[in-house]
Amino acid sequence: CLVPLISSRTGASSPRNSRSLPITSTPVYFGPVYFGCLENGTPVAVKMLSETSSQGYAEFLAEAQHLTRVHHKNLVSLIGFCRDRKHLSLVYEYMDGGNLQDRLRGQESPNWLQRLKIALDSAYGLEYLHKSCSPPLIHRDVKTGNILLTSNLEAKLSDFGLTRAFSSGTRTHTTTQPAGTLGYLDPEYYATSHLSEKSDVYSFGVVLLVLITGQPAIIIISDTERTNISHWARHRLSEGDIDSVTDPTIRGDRDINSVWKVAELALRCTEHTGRDRPTMVEVVEGIKESLQLETSSRSRRCSSDGTGGLEFSDCETVGALETELIGETSAH
Question: Where in this chain does the record put each Protein kinase domain (predicted)?
């Protein structure tokens, strides 16, 4: 059923009495993003449709109604939508942990186990869009800035469907102006303007490389030279040295085989041709295998010498993840 329309009188706070969120990445047809509260005190994020958008109200309403029907635990929930005089906006659940891009750059960067769990959560969300939505929903802008986190580092994919829903010419998979973010953009899509689920797979492969390396999607080599992380990592990994690309903050606290498995998966995802890339179903399975390697390694360290140099809470997390993975495998 439809989520009820939310107005500024009965629902989310209006821009005049709410504060702007500095940690949101949204397409150009959206204006400011605000933090607000519903009448019951539920915190929300309010994304305002830009006044320069070509989207009409009827189109906005139809697409917003469609997006309110997309539900998955690893997708940021669209609570509703607003029309207030000249303003159109989308109202989303508020994620209090910020986004993955900022978290990786912060002082408390996630460890390798946490990064794997974030990757798996995000992959589940993207798999749902591709496999369980009818017709399949292509995200078009998968990146670390669009992976939002709770305070417990549970990850949800945000801004799915926005590029298709709120830009002109949305009824075809062939576009005249490729949507996406530099560094994450599928080169095949950029060259041909033909969009598919494999375009999202490429972008997700870049996300995996960012998680491994801690580097941005576009790496600055010198004042005059920049390169895409997929080219940079592919060249270095071809020499067989995983440590040369691994983020120094996780280098001493990871199972090397687990990192290698994700690196190889990321390289498959970022193949130049879409038909050579895996599906998101295969990506999910690959990440789960890597997570099992990591949890097994940490479990051995916890049992061999008390906590094996790990914090007690880390050992508890390992145990919980092992139980979760076993449960998911049995369910499948």
Answer: 19-291
Contact status, residue 90 vs residue 81, Cβ threshold 8 Å? yes
State yes or no: is 141 an active-site residue: yes
Please pick, among 141, 200, 255, 314, the residue that the annotation labels catalytic.
141
Question: Which of 93, 125, 143 is a domain's end point?
Answer: 93
Total domains, the chain:
2
pLDDT per position as a tens digit, 167-178 = 444 444 555 566
Alpha-carbon span 187 to 108, nearest angstrom? 33
**251-259: long-range pairs with CB below 8 Å, 24+:** 253/111, 253/112, 254/111, 254/112, 254/113, 254/294, 255/112, 255/293, 255/294, 255/296, 255/297, 255/298, 257/293, 258/112, 258/116, 258/290, 258/291, 258/293, 258/294, 258/297, 259/112, 259/212, 259/290
Query: What tokens were used for 1?
Result: 């059923």
The two tokens of residue 206 are 């870049």
Do 149 and 74 share a structural domain?
no
Same domain, 41 and 131: no
Min mean pLDDT across 8-12, 55-59, 128-132, 306-310 is at: 8-12
Domain coverage including residue 39: 15-93
Q: Which of 93, 125, 150 is the last residue of a domain?
A: 93
**Does 233 lie in the same domain as 84?**
no
The CATH number of the domain where 291 resides is what? 1.10.510.10
Which tokens go with 203? 């972008």
**210 & 249 share domain:** yes
Computed over its alpha carbons, how large is the radius of gyration of the chain?
20
